[in-house]
Amino acid sequence: MSHEKFRPQYHFSPRKNWINDPNGLCYFNGEYHLFYQYHPHSKVWGPMHWGHAVSTDLIQWEHLPVALYPDELGQIFSGSVVVDHLNTSGLQVDQRKVMVAIFTHHKEGHETQSIAYSRDEGRTWEKYHLNPVLDNPGLKDFRDPKVFWNETHWVMSLACGDHIRFYRSEDLLNWTYLSSFGHEYGAHGGVWECPDLIRFQTDAGEKWVLIVSINPGGPNGGSAIQYFTGSFDGKMFKPDQSKEVVKWADYGRDFYAAVTWSNLAEPLWIGWMNNWQYANEGPTHPFRGSMSIPRKLYLKEVEGKTMLVQKPIEVTPLLKERTESECICLKPEHAFSRVIQRQSSFQATIKSGFVAFDLSIKGEGEQLTINFNPFKQCLKVDRTGLKLVQFSKEFASVDSMSVKYVNDFHLFIDECSIEIFINQGTKVMTELFYMNGDSFTLEWKANKTELQAKYRLEEISSIYEPALSHFEGRV
Ligand code: FRU
After folding, report:
1. What sign does the dihedral 87-88-89-90 (CA atoms) show?
2. Cβ(18) to ligand 1 under 6 A?
3. Separation of 20 CA from ligand 1 center, angstroms?
4. Residue 257, ligand 1, Cβ within 6 A
5. Which of 19, 38, 78, when mutated, tests ligand 1's pocket best, judged by the most ligand atoms within 8 Å of its CB?
6. What are the average pLDDT values for consecutive 10-residue runs of the chain, which has 475 residues?
7. Is 49 near ligand 1, meaning CB less than 6 Å away?
8. Could you tell me if the CB of 111 is within 6 A of ligand 1?
9. Which residues have C-beta within 8 Å of that of residue 76, sequence separation ≥ 6?
10. How far apart are alpha carbons 319 and 471 in whole angstroms?
11. Longest Cα pair distance anywhere in the chain, in angstroms?
12. Ligand 1 centroid – CA 394 distance (Å)
């Protein structure tokens, strides 16, 4: 597995065949559960199942058998899993708490919500005999239930085409409509999918964020995730931003359908690293699709606006080699150049955040380039210099996001993906790139004026060939 071309070495990917959205993220008895949209018979999207894996550290994953199969009510589309601590559903029969999956049944375009339960910590699942538990009121899109416990009862967010609906339940079995949000808010270039309503505790008190995936209509084309900040009174979500404002969680082309783990004190999420524009054509084999690095979520006030901040989890157990620099000085005529592994992390803090630079990941006659232009206040990722792009006419692109300064960045590279966290994770871009070669060359050069920085380069080992880290216990 570790030697397959473009096989991510520290990101989650299925052994074989197609995956899309993460589903049923739930932390229970020391295990992080990751279910996912899965087509076990093919590398293209097809009748959806829920695949399943568990991890104790979010890095090493144990693959488990398919958890949910399509049935007479339809395919198993996206949804969530909760632990029914108080046995509100009455499905618990002994001391062991029951995990309940709430998912969309999709049959010939008709979508309803159903549940399944597990009495053995997610190892086997039983569908509820009275499914569906929430019927379709006549909407074409009615899917991706994300459920959380709100003090005394359950709340479900549901994607309904151009808006999100909220429902309430005492027992997970019966649901009543609460309210709708979004017709007039945010981006509407495509269908709304995979919502998540997240509570944050901030210094200023409680804040809520509503996550909404949208496809197409992302800032750089195709799939992307927008979010709304505001309050939730148990019934309605009230945004604290005006209708036209759009906040994007990640400006790259390849971060979609991310949602948070349930049953955790602090918000943590993972996304599907792909874009519906070309997801079915990616040049990987025998699998197609992988997940992002898990990221912790925070809120931060930036220029009077509440912004979502993402911090990748530490990959400490996988760190092999680390190079740290004193202050280096990059001149326009002299590029910093290093051969790096295909699994690396590169981070830097820059003395003045307003210096223009190019940072390229190079192969044999090809490259992926990150360009920061402080005059245009723009950061771009350019995939047009890559050779392997023909699989889809949508793939080669120059993708951009507005960035005023770059004080620091942290890049995570793994075989065919790069995740770029700028300014402590306040701006993020995730992009796939398929480049040949045993290693890459990282080239960093200042444009126009000199740039002073300190960097840290880390080699990351493979989860398939774990080597004991030199850094264990040190970071
Ligand atoms: C998002 C999505 C969901 C749906 C699932 C189907 O990528 O379209 O809305 O439940 O994928 O696989």
Report:
1. positive
2. no
3. 8
4. yes
5. 78
6. 88 98 98 98 98 98 98 98 98 98 98 98 98 98 98 98 98 98 98 98 93 98 98 98 97 98 98 98 98 98 94 95 94 93 98 97 98 98 98 98 98 98 98 97 96 97 72 42
7. no
8. no
9. 48, 49, 50, 68, 69, 70, 103, 104, 105, 106
10. 7
11. 71
12. 20
Half-sphere exposure in the Cβ direction for 362 (13 Å, CA): 14
> Which domains are present in the chain?
17-312 (2.115.10.20), 316-474 (2.60.120.560)
Model confidence pTM above 0.85: yes
Least Cα distance to 102 among 23, 210, 197 occurs for: 23
Mutate to test the pocket of ligand 1, among 139, 143, 191 (most ligand atoms within 8 A of CB): 143
* Cβ(143) – ligand 1 distance below 6 Å: yes
- Rounded to an integer, what distance in angstroms lies between the CA atom of residue 420 and that of residue 425? 8
Alpha carbon distance 185, 284 (integer Å): 37
- What SS3 state is found at 264? coil
DSSP 74: B
